[in-house]
Amino acid sequence: MEFFRTLPTCLDANSIQRLLDIPALPVYCDAIDALVEHQGPDAGVIYCIWGEFRVHRERINGGLRFSLPGCPNGLAWTLSTGHPPSPDAVVLHLTINRQHHDSDFVESLEAFADSWHLPEA
Questions:
Q1: C-beta separation of 119 from 29 below 8 A
Q2: Tens of pLDDT, residues 45-94
Q3: Rg value, the chain, Cα
Q4: CA-CA to 1 of 20 to 30 Å: which in 35, 71, 98, 107?
Q5: Pairwise CA distance, residues 117 & 106, whole Å
Q6: Neighbouring residues of 104: CB distance < 8 A, sequence distance ≥ 6
């Protein structure tokens, strides 16, 4: 399954990559309650709406990819900009490795996608 959101911000790819390290996740995503531990900007442990998970951060073309490698649903999301159809927007793309899931879990994925907010500049 996949979910998309367009986030209102003027950040470019370099700004996204500088701003969104692992310790910053609870600041910009209300569904991530706490940073439990971090090993630099690219690895750590978060507590979120589904519990405690190890999180990885990877620079990609146009932004960042985050993944929860221990998640049974293979949850990952990207925040990127500079690509069609909205090259001036930051697009959140959230995926799991299932085509279908129960409605409560899908609702929680929608809530996670909706909980992101980035600075305007």
A1: no
A2: 999 999 999 999 999 999 999 999 999 999 999 999 988 777 888 999 99
A3: 14
A4: 35
A5: 20
A6: none
* Residue 94 C-alpha from the chain's centroid: 7
Residue 56 · residue 42 · CB < 8 Å:
yes
Closest CA to 112 of 3, 34, 1: 3
Task: Report the predicted TM-score, pTM, of the whole model to 2 decimal places.
Answer: 0.93
> Are 80 and 13 a contacting pair, CB within 8 Å?
yes
- 3-state SS track over 5-67: EEECCCCCHHHHHHHCCHHHHHHHECCEEEEEEECCCCEEEEEECCEEEEEEEEEECCEEEEE
Nearest to 92 by CA among 78, 103, 106: 78
Q: Which candidate, 86, 42, 36, places its Cα nearest to that of 65?
A: 42
